[in-house]
Amino acid sequence: DFTQTAPVTNTQPSSLVFLTINSICLLLYQHQIGLIRFNFIAIEQSNRYLDNKLYSSSV
Description:
By secondary structure, the chain is mostly helical. It has helices at 2-30, 32-58. The termini are far apart.
């Protein structure tokens, strides 16, 4: 019986990790619009930087 209960105790930490991942995903989902806007701004800035770098190197 003790050997059968061992796997159950091993699955408890993983379920805790799963719950924390779920809560993090929920938080990220709530701020998804803000994150998407931030990502677009970052992508635009990096693209401008790369364009300027390519342009300056080609000239």
